[in-house]
Amino acid sequence: MSDDPSINSPVLSVDKLSYRYPNGQAALTDISFDIQPGERIGLVGPNGAGKTTLLLHLNGLLPGYDLPVADGQSAEASYPVRVSGLPALQKNLPAIRQHVGFLFQDPDDQLFCSTVREDVAFGPLNLGLSREEVLQRVATQLAAMGLTDVENRSTMQLSFGERKRVCLAGILACQPNVLALDEPSSNLDPRARRGFMRLLEDCPAAQLIASHDLELILDLCTRVMVLDRGRIQADGEPATIFSNQRLMELHGLELPLSIRYGKR
Ligand SMILES: Nc1ncnc2c1ncn2[C@@H]1O[C@H](COP(=O)(O)OP(=O)(O)OP(=O)(O)O)[C@@H](O)[C@H]1O
């Protein structure tokens, strides 16, 4: 650990976050955790556990908390989600979204421009960067994702895995320091999945990865949180948590095959 407090301060912190959807459905209860710079954390849990809901809060996609503001405290001081110290209040969202890149589970929720190139350029253009800087970032990401050959194609003419890479290219072109990834490996074939894992491994941003792919979490993450019924039920080292059969069964999770067959 460094003695410089700014180096050790979290890039993202969540403090006692609770959330209920407008129809009254409780989705998150009293969630607290920090993410340190460059840390890669898995988020696992059964269907309906609250994973997507939690990720959506990280860049302010779900405004409105049901936390009471204590007497004498401002909403700002009591805000439960902070990115680099900045509360994720409406007025701060443009700045927050520069810091946090969000990868949706379904690329079609994310892509909307006519060509691959335009989609990758959309985020950097909105950051107000110079044209040269935007062109350079777009070219770098297209090359890194192996998308240069399809840059002028419509995203609708691409495969699912290619569309997912376009989404990641657009996010990384904004150079966020946190990535919120919702099921990054779902619907990818084994080769595309491996390629996607390598891209995440090479990315220096802190990452919160919600996934049912426990092998991916084992390979990529140094920490995992188990979410169930909207609460964090366990938080620790992935191999230790995933070897705990009782805990896993209790929260509707199966032991990863590599652990079951002693390959780790
Ligand atoms: N738009 C919505 N309106 C009302 N309730 C919702 C909405 N979206 C999700 N929920 C509810 O909130 C809870 C958490 O859902 P969420 O999608 O965050 O779970 P999840 O862990 O991501 O699930 P999955 O693994 O199936 O993707 C569930 O009870 C779900 O039914």
TrEMBL record:
Official protein name in the record: Cobalt import ATP-binding protein CbiO
One Gene Ontology term, aspect cellular component: ATP-binding cassette (ABC) transporter complex
Compartment(s) where it occurs, according to its Swiss-Prot or TrEMBL record: Cell membrane
Keywords: ATP-binding, Cell membrane, Hydrolase, Membrane, Nucleotide-binding, Translocase, Transport
ABC transporter domain location: 12-254
Enzyme Commission (EC) number: 3.6.3.-
Major location category of this protein: membrane
One example GO MF annotation: ATP binding
Family classification: Belongs to the ABC transporter superfamily.
